[in-house]
């Protein structure tokens, strides 16, 4: 049939046999996610005079940004979202205690292979870690899908990335993605689908795949796929209410790709994204010794349980540099509880970390604000000017391992010394 994963999913959601790159289709998403910006979509719905939703069961609302509310305005916005959810019977509503929308929805079984999911966050590409087509849209488009059930979508071309080899100790999926973003550029995959393949994939955890699919947005990807395998099945099935709905979508063997790129993981080193663009990446040894005032471990890219464990393993029995503020924000309530039960949070706190409630945290400008001239090392997915406070501050991005090593040193450090 010569179809890629994106082509198959969009054809299915448009109710046609096949589609071709560049074609515009009326696609019906399985799920429409909105977060703290839900109030904006509610406002649009009121302006157009809409009174009914196409299907309330296809809506998911997660209040993850600036949670709990820190100003009266945020409190009012969140109240609008709660009232909307109650009025229309939105069952997939998660309040400020739940965590980051993407992680919450996946943990609660609302994402499965073959789904089409759109939402008010550009990093909806993360759903591709489970074989779903995830893509970010604006709040006006969200309101439109709420009412009509459908969305115009252009079928993207697809790039094939093949991974071989294994990561060396101290090198991870975050380093792979920073390398790719730096190599291909912020628009290297502009409005394209990306499919990952290769002998390296089976060894990668679901957490690593989430990091990959999440960060792929930073090279312009419209959607991303790690084709479902046995690991996907084992992770997703226990979370589904109806196991019969698990139907993986795979590309045809003769699918046509715009470009194919091979990457040998054994050749990768720890990478750093330098201010003020994610594509401004350098190997860690080129920026080692850069002092830091703050280290942020969190975000939908690296606030998962496995990420906390990586940092805790390095920090165990050690103290962070007294000049560094280490802020740890678990990505969800489920992750926080697991880290509590296994002692991971205790290890982080004993090292000198400040642990906050689950959510977007400093990545969304909620806490961890920096002053003029300060430098932050972050495991988030963006380092734009002013994202974490002062426009005169600087943000570097790294993996959890690099972040932990740097928090100990008080400056950007190579984590590989802790893996020898």
Main attributes?
single chain; 420 residues; alpha/beta; Aconitase, domain 3; 2 domains; five-stranded parallel beta sheet; 13 helices; 17% strand; globular; 4Fe-4S; metal-binding; branched-chain amino acid biosynthesis; Acoase/IPM_deHydtase_lsu_aba
Topology at a glance:
Layout: H1 5-14, E1 24-27, E2 31-34, H2 38-47, E3 59-62, H3 72-88, E4 92-94, H4 101-107, E5 116-119, E6 133-136, H5 139-148, E7 151-154, E8 158-164, H6 173-184, E9 193-197, H7 206-215, E10 223-225, H8 230-236, E11 259-264, E12 271-273, E13 281-283, E14 294-297, H9 299-302, H10 305-315, E15 325-328, H11 333-341, H12 344-351, E16 354-355, E17 375-378, E18 394-397, H13 400-409
Parallel strand pairs: 2-3, 2-5, 3-4, 5-6, 8-9, 8-11, 9-10, 14-15, 14-17, 15-16, 17-18
Antiparallel strand pairs: 1-7, 12-13
Helix pairs in contact: 2-5, 6-7, 10-12, 10-13
Binding site for [4Fe-4S] cluster: 300, 360, 363
Pathway: Amino-acid biosynthesis; L-leucine biosynthesis; L-leucine from 3-methyl-2-oxobutanoate: step 2/4
Domain Aconitase/3-isopropylmalate dehydratase large subunit alpha/beta/alpha: 8-288
